[in-house]
UniProtKB/TrEMBL annotation:
Classification via InterPro entries: Acyl_CoA_acyltransferase (IPR016181), GNAT_dom (IPR000182)
Protein name: GNAT family N-acetyltransferase
UniProt-listed Gene3D superfamilies: 3.40.630.30
Family matches, as CDD domains: NAT_SF
Domain N-acetyltransferase: 3-190
Amino acid sequence: MTIEVRPASVFEDVRAVLGPKSPNANVCWCLSYRIPSRLNNELRGPARGEYVAELCRAEPPPGVLAYDGDEPVGWAAVAPRADTSFARNRKIPHVDDLPVWSLWCVRVRPGHRKQGISHALIDGAVEFARAHGAPVVEAYPLDNGDARVDLTMAYAGLRKNFERAGFVHVADTTSVLAGHPRVLMRLDLR
């Protein structure tokens, strides 16, 4: 298996990884940290997918997709922190004034997990951010040690996976997800 990571500019491929089975469902579509809370609450059903379709047509696209051949098998959200709610998040500190990019969601489709795709997604998201001029990439993964994590809440990633990609712990946060603390990790691209 050869995994290729590409910009998430093809909406149908993003839909295959993030979209709901029912078009009227109110799934996340990885919008909760990307857009203001009010807009996130107002977008219902198909409007959520339509919003993501617009993001896929924008430059830069909203993240990266992992492909096994032509099949999209994973997603990572990455964008300038200033364009996300992390810019205003009180639970996740800012350690300096660099225009960092945030990497906050890593998702691998069922049937494709435990094959290294999340590692390829993290690496691909870093390269995407680097290509768009990011000086630093931040992530806010779960610090779960060896404890199991509910797969629905593992989207933030796991500390050990970011360490493997060269990220370093720079700060603790007061954010907790699925009973696990989140930590602020960074990879300096300068």
